[in-house]
Amino acid sequence: MAALSIAGDPQADALLSTDPFALLVGMLLDQQIPMEKAFSGPAVIAARMGTPGLDPQAVADCPPEEFETLMAGPPAVHRYHRNFAGRVQTLARFVVDTYGGDAAAIWADVEDGPALLARLKALPGFGEQKAKIFLALLGKQLGVEPAGWREAAGDYGTPGSHRSVADVVDGESLLKVREFKKAMKAEAKAKAAR
User: Fold this and answer.
1) CATH of the domain at 147
2) Would 19 be classed as within a structural domain?
3) What is the pLDDT of residue 24?
4) What is the pTM of this model?
5) I need a surface site. Which of 112, 125, 138, 157 has the fewest CB within 10 A?
6) How confident is the model at residue 192 (pLDDT cuts 50, 70, 90)?
């Protein structure tokens, strides 16, 4: 895998760059909290579990109350740590049961972009938008480029669009993504006020 720079923390980014399941969990957590905190979450979980990586089998098998406590911190991995503890464990169980615990198998040997998008949308907690963003991240930063991947990712696949985490490679690109999101929120607010 390529060296990612999403979390803004060298240890967290190193885990994201080498552990496909950690990257999936970061994407799952990227909701209602800052992007860097979401993508730092897998490293925090792994450290609290006492493991060098984030093993889907270990996460799935952890007693739910114990995993909830682990997510609660302090500091909490997510502001809605109880809810997301269950979501992370559900995702882990799916990866174990469907892909033998190998998260990278999700994007290996796919026939085309639409097929990969369908696999991503089948993941627990991954709706249409999250699946498209993750598909764009795979294509833009990790070289996972099945035929038609940009079209399947929609606007997120557009080169240099700075719409999502798929375009974050450093501090400057993070600011561009934040500016884009801020502009979209302002536009939506203006439309709602009409």
Assistant:
1) 1.10.340.30
2) yes
3) 97
4) 0.93
5) 112
6) confident
